[in-house]
Amino acid sequence: MSDSKHIAFLGLGVMGGPMAGHLLRAGHTVTAYNRTPARAQAWRDRFGSDGAAHIAATPAEAARDAQIVISCVGNDDDLSQVMRGPDGALATLAPGGLVIDHTTVSARIARALAQECADGGLHFVDAPVSGGQAGAENGKLAIMCGGTPDAYAAAEAVMAAYAARMVHIGGAGAGQTAKMVNQICISGIMAGLSEAVRFADAANLDMDKVLDAISGGAAQSWQMENRWKTMAADEFDFGFAIDWMRKDLGYAIEEAKALGVSVPVTALVDQFYGEVQALGGGRQDTSALIRRLPKGRR
Amino acid sequence: MSDSKHIAFLGLGVMGGPMAGHLLRAGHTVTAYNRTPARAQAWRDRFGSDGAAHIAATPAEAARDAQIVISCVGNDDDLSQVMRGPDGALATLAPGGLVIDHTTVSARIARALAQECADGGLHFVDAPVSGGQAGAENGKLAIMCGGTPDAYAAAEAVMAAYAARMVHIGGAGAGQTAKMVNQICISGIMAGLSEAVRFADAANLDMDKVLDAISGGAAQSWQMENRWKTMAADEFDFGFAIDWMRKDLGYAIEEAKALGVSVPVTALVDQFYGEVQALGGGRQDTSALIRRLPKGRR
Amino acid sequence: MSDSKHIAFLGLGVMGGPMAGHLLRAGHTVTAYNRTPARAQAWRDRFGSDGAAHIAATPAEAARDAQIVISCVGNDDDLSQVMRGPDGALATLAPGGLVIDHTTVSARIARALAQECADGGLHFVDAPVSGGQAGAENGKLAIMCGGTPDAYAAAEAVMAAYAARMVHIGGAGAGQTAKMVNQICISGIMAGLSEAVRFADAANLDMDKVLDAISGGAAQSWQMENRWKTMAADEFDFGFAIDWMRKDLGYAIEEAKALGVSVPVTALVDQFYGEVQALGGGRQDTSALIRRLPKGRR
Amino acid sequence: MSDSKHIAFLGLGVMGGPMAGHLLRAGHTVTAYNRTPARAQAWRDRFGSDGAAHIAATPAEAARDAQIVISCVGNDDDLSQVMRGPDGALATLAPGGLVIDHTTVSARIARALAQECADGGLHFVDAPVSGGQAGAENGKLAIMCGGTPDAYAAAEAVMAAYAARMVHIGGAGAGQTAKMVNQICISGIMAGLSEAVRFADAANLDMDKVLDAISGGAAQSWQMENRWKTMAADEFDFGFAIDWMRKDLGYAIEEAKALGVSVPVTALVDQFYGEVQALGGGRQDTSALIRRLPKGRR
Ligand SMILES: NC(=O)C1=CN([C@@H]2O[C@H](COP(=O)(O)OP(=O)(O)OC[C@H]3O[C@@H](n4cnc5c(N)ncnc54)[C@H](OP(=O)(O)O)[C@@H]3O)[C@@H](O)[C@H]2O)C=CC1
Ligand SMILES: NC(=O)C1=CN([C@@H]2O[C@H](COP(=O)(O)OP(=O)(O)OC[C@H]3O[C@@H](n4cnc5c(N)ncnc54)[C@H](OP(=O)(O)O)[C@@H]3O)[C@@H](O)[C@H]2O)C=CC1
Ligand SMILES: NC(=O)C1=CN([C@@H]2O[C@H](COP(=O)(O)OP(=O)(O)OC[C@H]3O[C@@H](n4cnc5c(N)ncnc54)[C@H](OP(=O)(O)O)[C@@H]3O)[C@@H](O)[C@H]2O)C=CC1
User: Fold this and answer.
1) A146 in helix, strand or coil?
2) Best residue in C271, C279, C292, C293 for a mutation probing chain B (most B CBs within 10 Å)
3) Over the Cα atoms of chain D, what is R_g?
4) D292 CA to middle of ligand 1, Å?
5) In this predicted complex, what is the ipTM?
6) Which of B127, B202, C20, C149 could cross-link to C9 by cystine, CB 3.0-4.6 Å?
7) C244: distance to nearest CA of chain D, Å?
8) How far apart are CA A119 and CA C44, in angstroms?
9) Mean pLDDT of chain D
10) Could you give the domains of chain B?
11) Which chain D positions have a beta carbon within 8 Å of B296's beta carbon?
12) D58 CA → ligand 1 middle, Å
């Protein structure tokens, strides 16, 4: 296949594993690196039928013969570890190569890596995703991208393997800041929804009828349509974890400070998520925000 | 027409005027009362072509020969004035009559009026609406109802003239508490959206591209789809006014206290709306919440 | 004694009982009314040794031969009940009489009663207190007063029996608004202190040493000096109850809205107090605000 | 003088300059380093009369012949620059030496430096101060200290030159966390006070009388006693700057997250301070928090 590439994929977690699988299915050769080797084995067992799936012991090794490096790890520190230093991917990726980072990290590190790549003759795209585990499995992620037009164009052709929607927002870091915008919106929505569900429940309202009455209007949200019933049923064991959300909100709050804007409700909700973590809910869905609110007198 | 009714309509404002117009169109006889008489004249001039539109000098006079009384005034005090006392509609409506209130008021007064009606052999439905001026004009309101099954059934047949959706939520007051749930959700959404728009603007992002990237996912809301661009353009002169919103949130916060539930973000947003009122934005759309947030350093 | 007065005292609760006792000790004749008769008996048994303590069955009866009516009941509704209507004190107090209200109520009702008194040829002083049960017992209350200079002068002479400090703030209602200022300040202080104690504890700091280090500087407050150690020890069973505080904050938030000012942290803390009520802490001291904050990982 | 020491002092700013001056007065030999050389000259001109005041070009040079290194710079990055690397003080301070840091920084860097010092045979005390510029000028600072008992004992003898109060809170980092406790308390106090002043002003109350009435009771605070009148007069040009406060709150919020505690009001006030920065108030006193609140309708 003419546009088949050699791709180094770093981080085979809940998101990265299936994304790397889609790349194989699209005909690319993938050399994967995962910090915990067992997970790399499991990934090859699951996706790697035809010899196009390889495993490397370090990011540098994975990137050595690659044209493209794609990462999806945890946070700023993690990203720094897989990219920088003698074992990092940037040490071996040949000039002209492309780096796509799908990790949700700070705009600061995205801009720094873009600069480091530029200095080394590499292209960089910050490309955080939304759509969750389901989106990664089904190849239906939404991807927000920052980088030069050339870098984006090259990245788009590859990311198409697992994207339902790709948008080139702007220059380096713009993908990350767009993702922050997304998380800021969700914070407010979840705060209102949590209070609304507790209120409706305490008022002894028929939860389905309330949803029916209000979900077609100005109070509607994706979260209302998808989480109202589960929140009312105290079900939180799916979706995007609060521990991840606090990481993302931390970056958003830091960036807001740098931009000179105030995000009071976001900062408050971040603290409220801390209360849910203290209740043991860190691995639960962001809709578990409701857990910190005592139930009413009903 | 067999199901043509004699209806007293109290309050021909932005919402009530067109609603009463739809009743005429549906074949009912409407005797309207408006505190400011000129508005009643204007209403008859606009809607009353065939002699079915009458004007009364007091609510009591309007209700005297009516089978149904419908109100859409401002707040608790206003509702009390048009319903109670010697000039109020309850003084003259004949036993067996039906009262439908479309005003957004407290659940307390809704329950009290339901009781007063029951004591007088009348039926009562609290029936706050959503959908705004456009919904009233187009006859496409969503109506949340509280009351007995019989009362609701009778009300439904009439309200169909201007409703796109009617839901019988529960007993007396349940319509109002469902509306409060709606407003609590909107508070959180608007808070997040305001911070997000300011953030995106300060980050110098292309606002249309951000919307494109995030409006299909977990951050989506009706408000995002309908207000993102106008907020980014500082346009707030349409839609549901902040002065009304603070009234509604006041009732919601009071009811939350009575129900023993906490609504911290709602209470905070209510205060933030107070800051926008102080900036002169009381008559602007609820999306003007963003006005209290300084623009970033950009 | 030349300045001995006939005083009707309404409400012999935690605050009112000892206050009325001080009036007896100061040589006044006191006719007391308490809704629950047993409490009036207990009061006379405790304070009424020399025949100057009488008990009346209604506020109106207590006020019939009085020159001064003093009230210390619960909230707006309670105050309205003991003052207004055929059994209320205003029905029988002779023209020229003075009404002093020590209840913490809304400025609205204070202004309304001042007007009603003026219409009936009576003087009115709104005179909420601070200093708590200990202040009432020891006669060391601080009293914030609103009313005409004449009314205040007359009230001052009597209130001296139980006051450590009396300040004439301004016209009718000014005593109540000053008390609201007091409660707004306390809300912020308690919020900071709660978070600080949890933080210090989670950081495993020696709580006494921290107090020693910071209580002499810019972070100092009466609450820090008096509640730091008890909060650290989870002791909340003394002082001003959260149920009362929420009443007071409700009036303050309502008044802020009327005044066109925003009180976001006060409104937030009010909701947080609601969470403590839901945890069963309504009768505990305002410092129990800390209870809603989970303890750290320590 | 037997306990006269050779001291390297890094950072001759608003705080450090006068502190280093007190050390000279106490008989120590001080070699000062300041990033901007002119400031070092000005310092020697002001304080260095008898030949005990020297100036070095780098922290390493200042520390070469010193027994003690004292720093008072800006933030974590600044501290790292003056301590670490080839030009940093740790590169030259002889084993057995003592490092005292008066900068308000993160507990993380304090613990890291303590460890680095221990590894190099040095003692380290984190010793943030309170008392402001006046305290530094008058030698009346309160100092919160973290470190080993030996390190603290050695530091105490020297810091006495400018301290009114020194408290050894605990191990490395405990000085910084105690300072965070201080700033958390202040955040809540300033939030309440800001809303209270705006409220009192809108209610048209006599500000002096309100202060008189409430400053003796449960709402009292150092800030109330010292800032009530200046806030009411819109005077903010003195005292601890908001830019510094946000730095401190940033560290506190980060540490709270690490400790697993929630600081919602602190996080909210931090954002509100961001709004005051956007209004141009970053260099103003923390009491300028009130500036973000619109004045009432008065
Ligand atoms: N506007 C909107 O988008 C929406 C509004 N609502 C709710 O619907 C209700 C009406 O809103 P809207 O129509 O926009 O308001 P308007 O101000 O346009 O109309 C209010 C009507 O009530 C009458 N009224 C008010 N007070 C009294 C009184 N004391 N005695 C007699 N009549 C009185 C007014 O009479 P007069 O002409 O003399 O002033 C007027 O007819 C409110 O509760 C609002 O919250 C709900 C959803 C959307
Ligand atoms: N406790 C404190 O530390 C402080 C309290 N305050 C304020 O002082 C006021 C009184 O507080 P406190 O004394 O503690 O309260 P208590 O509950 O101890 O006493 C309340 C008194 O009011 C009477 N009362 C209440 N409702 C009515 C009614 N509807 N009709 C007739 N009598 C009524 C009660 O009668 P009965 O015995 O029949 O219940 C009782 O005598 C409150 O407004 C409170 O906010 C102010 C500062 C400090
Ligand atoms: N001001 C106050 O009221 C209080 C301040 N503090 C804390 O004390 C510390 C100092 O405050 P303050 O004296 O007011 O601040 P100033 O800005 O007046 O002084 C800061 C000093 O640090 C030096 N400095 C900053 N960054 C560096 C760097 N990267 N390398 C070398 N030197 C550097 C500056 O050098 P240069 O002259 O070259 O800029 C200057 O000497 C801060 O952490 C502050 O939070 C604590 C309590 C009260």
Assistant:
1) strand
2) C271
3) 20
4) 33
5) 0.96
6) C20
7) 15
8) 90
9) 97
10) 6-171 (3.40.50.720), 177-292 (1.10.1040.10)
11) 278
12) 73
Chain-chain contact of C210 with D169 (C-beta, under 8 angstroms): yes
pLDDT 10s digits, D32-67: 999 999 999 999 999 998 889 999 999 999 999 999
Rounded to the nearest angstrom, the minimum Cα separation between A198 and chain D is: 20
Could you tell me the pLDDT band of residue D238, with boundaries at 50, 70 and 90?
Answer: confident
Q: What is the pLDDT of residues C192-209, one digit of tens each?
A: 999 999 999 999 999 999
Q: In which residue ranges of chain B is pLDDT below 70?
A: 1-2, 298
pLDDT of residue B2: 52
Q: Is the CB of C80 under 6 A from ligand 2?
A: no
C96 touches chain A (CB under 8 A): no
| Nearest C-alpha neighbor of C120 from the set C52, C56, C183, C69 | C69
Q: What is the mean pLDDT of chain C?
A: 97
CB A109 within 8 A of CB A79: yes
* Any atom of ligand 2 within 6 Å of the Cβ of C132: yes
User: Which positions ≥6 away from B189 have C-beta within 8 Å?
Assistant: A185, A188, A189, A192, A219, A221, B221, B223, B224
Q: What are the DSSP calls for D102-157, one per residue?
A: -S---HHHHHHHHHHHHHTT-EEEE--EESHHHHHHHT-EEEEEES-HHHHHHHHH
Tell me, yes or no, if A267 comes closer than 8 A to chain D by beta carbon: yes
Select from D72, D78, D65 the least CA-distant residue to D20: D72
Q: Does A256 touch chain B (CB under 8 A)?
A: yes
Question: Among positive and negative, which fits the CA dihedral B201, B205, B210, B213?
Answer: negative
Tens of pLDDT, residues A154-171: 999 999 999 999 999 999
SS3 assignment, position C47: helix
C chain contacts of residue B246, beta-carbon cutoff 8 Å: 257
Q: Which amino acid is at A248?
A: D
Ligand 2 atom closest to C15 (CA)? 13
Q: Which two structure tokens, joined as six digits, stand for B282? A: 């009381």
* Token reading at C191: 């919020």
Backbone angles phi, psi at B140, to 5 degrees: -125, 40
For the record, the structure tokens of C286 come out as: 């305002």
> Is residue C19 within 6 Å of ligand 2 at its C-beta?
no
Structure tokens at C18: 């000892």
B149 and chain A in contact, CB less than 8 A: no
Angle at A255 between CA A249 and CA A257, to 5 degrees: 105
All residues at 6 or more sequence positions from B268 whose CB lies less than 8 Å from its CB, including other chains? A264, A265, A268, B191, C264, C267, C268, D268
- Distance of alpha carbon A19 from alpha carbon A29, whole angstroms: 13
pLDDT, position A238: 81
Using CB atoms, which residue from B256, B257, B271 is nearest to C263?
B271
Spatial separation of the C-alpha atoms in residues C27 and C43, rounded to whole Å:
16
As a whole number, mean pLDDT of residues A123-138 equals: 96
Among the partner-chain residues C278, C279, C294, the one whose CB lies closest to the CB of A278 is: C294
Tokens encoding C34: 């308490």
Average pLDDT over residues C162-188: 98
For B63, the enclosing helix (H) or strand (E) is helix B59-63
CA–chain centroid gap for B65, Å, is 27
Instruction: Give which of B288, B266, B267 is closest to B277, Cα–Cα.
Output: B288
How far is the C-alpha of B298 from the C-alpha of A261, rounded, in Å?
Answer: 10
β-partners of residue C70 are: C9, C100
- Give the tokens for residue C62: 């207590």
DSSP string, D68-101: EEEE--SSHHHHHHHHSSTTSGGGTSPTT-EEEE
Q: Measuring CA to CA, how many Å separate D265 from each of C163, D178, D190? A: 35, 18, 11
By the 8 A CB rule, do B103 and B73 touch?
yes
Instruction: Please confirm, yes or no, whether C140 is among the known catalytic residues.
Output: no
